[in-house]
Amino acid sequence: MTGRLTDFVTATYNSDETIMAKLKNETVHSILHISEEINHIKDLDSLLDRILFEARRHTNADAGSLYLVERNKLKFSYVQNDSIIGQDSAFPYLYVNQEMDIDDKSIAGYVALKLRPLAIRDAYRLNAGVPYGFNRSFDEMTSYRTSSVLTVPLITSHDRLIGVMQIINAQDANKNVIPFTEEGKLYASYFAGHAATAIEKAKMTREIILRMIRIAELRDPEETGAHVNRVGAYSIEIYSRWAANHGIPQTEISRVRDILRIAAMLHDVGKVAISDVLLRKNGRLSDEEYEQLKWHPVYGARLFRDSASDWDDMAFAIALNHHERWDGAGYPGRLNDLNSIDRLSGAGKKGEEIPFFARIVTLADVYDALISQRIYKHGWPESRVLDYIREQRGGQFDPELVDVFLSIYHVIGAIRRKYA
């Protein structure tokens, strides 16, 4: 745990020996166990999901948010809400664009500024004289009622503020909202230090991935960070709804989401081996040029062929197969040895012969390509894009995945706005 936060927690709670003993005997073991698990999570968003879940679980809280520091502001980065998400398993509020200053005008900004936890009994009845206020806009949009709020700074082992965790509406055994207990406050404060270290590592991993993508962007102006972030987010949301429809356990859904987002983001990394002349051409490719472009799935797959993990396997399958079509008219088709092939097969894979996660990314990638402006075209109107996707149900796309995509389109739209 970080030095600055340790000093504050010790000074605040050292007088209550019962709570400290309970923390040492029960909670420390839990924190260490969870910390070990979260340090193995690869994807930043999957990590934020797990951190918020564990903080809420141990404080019996209904909802919560995480804000990460970006460009000296707090950027809204993750949210959970059992009351609202129970009404809609696809949660568009996860993709809201919101940021706030690190100052004393908001609760989260105040905690980030002062670098110390803050517990509030009722957000609608703040103590007189406090500088911060409570923004009711989310409550008004969703008919939610925020009452008790526990806000904790996320400080790394180098005493660097990386974000703020806000936990909302502690509950008793009967689901009645109550103030956060002293034990809950202590747990959240100690857990925050371990969470901050894990977030710092995951942010570094995300940045490495985005740097790889920026290398591709130097060659291909359409392969941007915004595009791959959208494709990654579309993909995990399509998978999550499909998995829920099929009764997949939540632990497996979380495991897959962790590796799917990053694998999906790297779907076109093979374009680094394609000529700039083709990638930057402002106009339709000739037949010969198009045949050269068809090699990029092979080049991308070669980067992941020496598998060392489930992530390598998924990245390989997606890179190689994301241009296959459900009706068999895609490419590069059935290939034996990727290292020695000198020509593509000419016959695409068909139906369920195409790996499942590649079928998801195909839909996500084509949707984003059609609706976005590119160097060689204007973006299609939204209605035209959706008509095309419906028309290609069973043609270019897996029919079931089209149905899933359309059922969560309100979330797809939220993702597109967030990563505009």
Major pleated sheet: 7 strands, antiparallel
What integer value in Å does the Rg equal? 24 Å
Question: Helix/strand/pairing class, anyone?
Answer: alpha+beta
Q: Can you name the CATH architecture of the largest domain? A: 2-Layer Sandwich
Q: Can you give the mean pLDDT?
A: 88
CATH class designation of the largest domain: Alpha Beta
Helix content: 40-55%
CATH homology superfamily name of the largest domain: GAF domain
Could you say how many structural domains there are in total?
2
Describe what this molecule looks like in 3D.
It is a single chain. The protein is α+β, with helices and mostly antiparallel strands and 420 residues long. It folds into two domains: 3-203, Beta-Lactamase (2-Layer Sandwich); 220-418, Hypothetical protein af1432. It is 52% helix and 11% strand. The protein contains 17 helices and seven strands. The chain has helices at 3-13, 17-38, 44-59, 82-85, 107-114, 137-142, 182-219, 225-245, 250-265, 276-279, 287-293, 296-302, 310-321, 356-371, 382-391, 399-407, 409-418; strands spanning 61-70, 73-81, 99-101, 118-120, 149-155, 161-171, 177-178. Strands 1, 2, 3, 4, 5, 6 and 7 form a seven-stranded antiparallel beta sheet that branches. A hairpin with a 5-residue loop joins strand 6 (161-171) and strand 7. Helix 3 packs antiparallel against helix 7. The longest helix has 38 residues, at 182-219. It is elongated. The protein starts with a helix and ends with a helix. Residues 13-20 have low confidence and may be disordered.
